[in-house]
Amino acid sequence: MKKIAIITGASSGIGKEFALTVTNHRQYDEIWAIARDEKRLAALAEQISVPVKPISLDLSHAKSYDKLAELLDEEKPVISTLINCAGYGIFDSVANTSFENNVGMIDLNCRALTAVTLKCLPYTEQGSEIINIASVAAFQPIPYIDIYGATKAYVLSFSRALNRELKSRGVRIFAVCPFWTKTAFFERAVQKDKNVVVKKYAAMYEPSYIASYAWKKIEKTRRDYCIPGFIAKMQVLLVKILPHSAIMSIWQSQQKLK
Asked: For an engineered disulfide with 57, which of 64, 239, 246, 252 has Cβ 3.0 to 4.6 Å away?
């Protein structure tokens, strides 16, 4: 039976780095790379040593889940690895962000991740793994990044709880919680012709570092999440120590937000 890896958001950023390095982690018969951009997926396929099935889907639309389910039903593969990287954020106040973007973040970051996971679960086996990209934002409420942070809190909580549920089946769920990372994420997050929300970045990591760190932790620890980077770890530690009201005030002061 064909063993595959499925990676969403595979055309750029962290998703692309996972796609490029996944064959160093395990052996697969095929990689299913999911994203909207067909050209980028085709270019990605040329960089990977095993066969790649480029699947152009917009996971913000529910019909995409049915398309994925149809492909799985046709081929009936074993999903050794599923990596949910698709997502986006908007840096602005909720009131200044369009309804479509506010709800869209929830649809893609939460609903799509959950739907893809549920569609794929029947094709997993003992030893299979599901990796979900959460964020350091999952650990605290963040004014002006309200909804994005809340969606990542959902991803982290969902991942950890589901990992416990599936323990008896031998399927592992692992959440990766990156800090600021150099990706095309910011092209959408920072709205043109609007006030700049994030004026100071404590650190900025490379996508290759995030993927490399995550692979090491997945192989060496039995924990259900990881936080790549020393500065990111220190921030999460402070968030655990200080009241969230103080954390929000510090954030707003740091970024000169009212």
From this structure: 64
